[in-house]
Prior knowledge:
mainly alpha; two-stranded antiparallel ribbon; binds iron/sulfur cluster; 6 strands; 6 helices
Amino acid sequence: MRKPSRELISQQEAIEAVKAVYGELENRPVERDCIRRTECCQFKLTGKTPYLTAGEALVTAAALQQSGVNKLPAKEDGSCPLLKPETGRCIAYEDRPFSCRTHFCVAAGGPYSRKEVQDLIWRLEDLDTRLGGVGAQTLPAALKEALPKVTMRKGGPTAQIHSKAAPRARGR
Ligand code: SF4
């Protein structure tokens, strides 16, 4: 039976653990071919918005800060705030969330089935709990919360213990 850890974890440890999950996903023998069509980044058109756990949000927020983005860009067209209008590219593609890596568009081979990645989802959920999170949130909400927490110092984001957050309603 699955027994999630509730031991608190630092931001830096969580970032490393989430990146390890992404690394394992890359090595799964599931054929998908994202050619960055960015169709799945058009939230209004698809009617779907990625949900991020707290650790995923830290990874993407750290990448944004490293590229000089400290505030989520406003978007009027209903696309992802990380989709750059000038280039049509994701600002944080290498550090994009798990959903962006698994909910592929049809042209790229379609989404992963849950059973193919269930163990990785559990690890991300456990990390969320250990960061004091309350479960996955929409990409804009998760990043708005994570950006101020990720403080850049020489050598990367500082390791800070995240205090237990007040419970909020889940929106998945
Ligand atoms: S984070 Fe990047 S890959 Fe994911 S929806 Fe936004 S622009 Fe697309």
